[in-house]
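#struct-queue
[09:14] JT: dropping the first one here, sequence first, then the structure tokens:
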Amino acid sequence: MAVLVTGGAGYIGSHTAVVLHEAGRDVVVLDDLSNSSPAAVDALRALTRPDLPFVEADAADVDAVGRAIADHGVDEVVHFAAFKSVSGSIADPDGYHRNNVGSTVGVVEAMRHNGVSRMVFSSSCTVYGEPTDLPVTEDSPISASNPYGATKVACEELLAAEAEAGGLDVLLLRYFNPVGAHASGDLGEDPRGTPDNLVPYLMQVAVGRRESLSVFGDDYDTPDGSAIRDYIHVVDLAEGHLAALDELAADRGSRGCTAVNLGTGTGYSVLDVLAAAGRVIGRPVPHQVVGRRDGDIQRIW
């Protein structure tokens, strides 16, 4: 089977591409490199095959996505391509909606034109907003608290409508906070600019690329006052996408649209993570507490 991985040069997409290749899938990567680099593609090819097909294109470009599907005999899609920063979405909500929803519309249209119906969609636990009950389940209320989460809700609604109309079989993977890197050390999370996520920020401080880390708030209603998140290793997350594709293939067009949470079920605070990192590197991680960050929730797992 050939699978198109949009956003496949990004953090989660690249790890998933490797896992899919190792499972025997013919992988085609499409990415516009807006938040990744050609070096990520080189690393992917080193870990998979030297001639791994790579298409540099915007996932919103229906023609480009359609050509990638047709040229490589694609029969299933994993759609990652999206902006993913909560703070970035607050600064540019219109841009986030245009990009995230627009890319999903483009991919769906290209799939429809080429008779491809199976999709695994990269959603997020941010669709739940600030949960009232923990742990969250797939039946927890949808209440996104920032524009990024709202784009994921909009995409989920679009995909559900397409599935209801009979055009798609979709698994929506609502995952929590991916962390970690490939065992080779050749793939990991190294975003352009200041990292929005805790672990890459922490690692840049640990190796001396930044002097210290900002902890956004210590006055949350949590045991140590810092925000709590559910952290899942990126390779476990990638294997979840493989399992989702296998599930869709086994259902043979009978699934429709289903949401699945993908996490560990356990939450850790920001200060917990800093303490663990300090134990690993043998010294405290330099940090300072600053005010809460707009759009952040206090705890979810």
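[09:21] JT: and here's the second one, same format:
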Amino acid sequence: MGLFDFLLTAKQKKEKVATRIGLESGAFQECPVCRDVTEAGAYANYADKVAAIVDQRLILPADDDMKLFQGNREELLRSVSEVAEKLPYHCSCGDSG
């Protein structure tokens, strides 16, 4: 949890959790240089792995962030999918050279 996370809206908090799940599943990648999160490839290729991680997180909630979704699997999967649609394919440092 970041220092200023208390300023985030509920939707932004959910997107942050969805991004963490996407990174854990391999559907998203984080650039080691600029820390931008990008799409690892076609999200559909990772959908099964994302679903497995979501199921694991909902069954064994290890953090308070999962309480945002109140056990709603479909909402969590939809959030990860929506974040995937917004992500660029390449990070910004790749654009700048």
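[09:30] RK: nice, looked through the second one.
[09:31] RK: The chain has a mean pLDDT of 85.
[09:31] JT: good to know. The beta strands are 28-30, 37-39.
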